[in-house]
Task: structure prediction
Amino acid sequence: MLLQQAGPAGAHPLSGTVADYLWLLPLLPLLGFVVNGWLSLASAYRAGPTDPGAAHGADGQDGHAAHDATGGGAHGDDHHPVARHRYAGLVSLIGPGVLAAAFVLAALIFLAMRSAADVHTPFVQTYFAWMPAGDLALDVAFQLDQLSMVMILIITGVGALIHLFSVGYMRDDPGYARYFAYLNLFVFFMLVLVLGASYPVLFIGWEGVGLCSYLLIGFWFNDKANADAGKKAFVVNRIGDFGFLIAMFMLFANLGRLDFAGVNAAAASLPVGGPVVTAICLFLFLGCIGKSAQIPLYVWLPDAMAGPTPVSALIHAATMVTAGVYLVARSNLLFAMAPVASLTVVVIGAVTAIFAASIALKQWDIKKVLAYSTVSQLGYMFVGVGSGAYVAGIFHLMTHAFFKALLFLGSGSVIYAMHAAYHATHSHDDAQDMRNMGGLKRYLPVTWILMWAATLAIAGVPPFSGFFSKDEILGSLFLRAGHSTLAEAHWLGMPGSVVLYVAYVLGLAAAFMTAVYMTRMMLYTFHGPNRTGDREREHLAESPWIMTGPLVVLGVLSVVGGWFNLPALIPLGPVGALDRWLEPVVGASALRITGGAPVEASHGTEIALILVAVAIALAGILLAVVRLKPERLVPKVESPAEHGFEKVLADKYYVDEAYDAAIVQPLVGISRGLLWRGVDVGIIDRLTRLIVQSKDDDQAVGTSVPMGGWLTRAVGYLGSQLQSGQTGTYAWVLVVGVLFVLGAFTFR
Amino acid sequence: MLAESLFFSAVLFTIGVVGVLTRRNAIIIFMCVELMLNAVNLTFVAFARVYGAGGQVFVFFVMTVAAAEAAVGLAIIIALYRHRQTVDLSNINLLKG
Result:
């Protein structure tokens, strides 16, 4: 093993502990990917149920899996004898197994880190020199600090639970092995992303998770819509990645370093609030906008719901989409030096939070509600990290990973049950539309209770986890609006304090909407009369334990997750644990933003802030319960169309249509009308036919140009005359040429 | 000493070039090529006396290549003669375009 310890100051407190096996952490899921991928390919060459993705030309997808994207794996009746994947047993062992092993390792490293004396500097492991080119000395290196540790625990922990859930959800899918191969590969890249010790290594993980996201969104690619959704996610993300690349170029051009330690050390030479550091931060944030689905690049995330539901839980809610938040927190020193960029992060985050929340109010697809909810919650996280409350942002990232993963897996459980019911009765209705659900609490009691826990958490009802993290974000935003370097800066001519107060109000409004749309989703899905259909109703049943088990664990985490960082006002346990844990990473930047001293609110202000937040959450839930009557709903096919503003919301403000008209259609039009018909066919093809014209071309093109090809023939004849075959002539030409070249150099 | 050596090798090289350009007998041309190679060798050795032994290394390479070239070249000329009963290159223009 190429392994050198390169701690910045001699022996790092973590060297010699279990943290030395840091390299093993991403290697475990990579191993899972290799084995599962090989099993997937191997099974394609044998008879049996074939995976359409494992080998070209294999045609084993049955019609039912293709007709409904999201329930493709959910069969379970005795009309069609379903044969599981050839290596299903082995895959179900390896896929979740490597994740469980990685989680155990991560937990051990965490314990070692906790018991180590003072870990002020990141623990860096350098493996080999990657790009030693001129001034650029780039190593493939991993670094472990408190921030990466939190991310690793979330990724491997929540990841292991979701892998386990997938064993049940994807049970009968022909692409079972391929699915786990992709999922393992995703976890590998995600770990590279959070462990990378430099921006380029982080970027490898950044692009890698994008690739896996693409592969898994289009997992059921027999349906063109799914493949298109994957493409859309990829293309939209590229816009953000361009920003990330520019930011890296600028970092190298101005600081000469790309590793985090070097950048943080060299950043002090940049003028605070200067154009360079502001531009670097804004370009970095462009990358975050793409990856974390913020306005204006959020459009890919709702479409990404075309993938299997556990994928939505892991990639498009709990981990990958939070990479942008992680990147801002990771670059906290730079962002703290650029108040304008930080305010931009706050503004984009706050506007996204309320914008996406308003769309979620009128969605009927259960996964679309959760998708827009994710966009909205990501906005919250950016408000946190943008306003310099880095811990609050990461805290919300963590609690969100718990409750949103639970919500998605719960919706997966619902869809699984719905699909099984429709499949048993050969019905072709929409298994994801809430208008076809209703009253499911009788049939799915475990899912029902757990999803209520997650709903209360996301709505911000104490003592559930989301209350603490959301309250911390909004509270610190309010305090920083009163006194911080951000409040003194100006954003597009507006005073920073005004911007922050407006963001606070937007955040409260978004919190209200969150409570409303989540309660609406729960009411329509689980309460009121059942609208699934009389025949289908008999087939509705709770999911197997392999699916409900992970839900229970996530349910517990959703409830108690907030205790990791209790505010001083509510001392139910150790106060501010996460604050103290992340202090070595973000402490200095947070202090810089708040002007040297931590902002302390008076007890009165703090109580008032908490009361406002709780009142807003409860008001939202109450409004939904009072105003929304699930009894009045009718199944999807009988539902009337929306009118007025409701229709605008249901159609997502027509943003997709606007992008289509403003960008996609002109692009296609120019490509087709000008570049293809005009340049390619009109000019290049015509010229080509003038120059070369053979009989084959005449037949192929169907046209004939008189004297076509004469130019080629003339040039060819002249060229052939040069070849006399006389060695003497060639020698003369050679000597004359040499004399000419020598003369040119001599008499220059 | 250097100037004389260089002058001598330039004369040798020119004789070689003129021979290659004017003669038609393959054997003669071949010998002229060898003359040119050895003229270059002479230059290398002459410079090596003044600037250090690096040039002499090249001489060994040139001699090795020249030996190999002689073996292959003579074999080709023999094969050519067996085929065409002549080594006059003006009669051989199979590659005419």
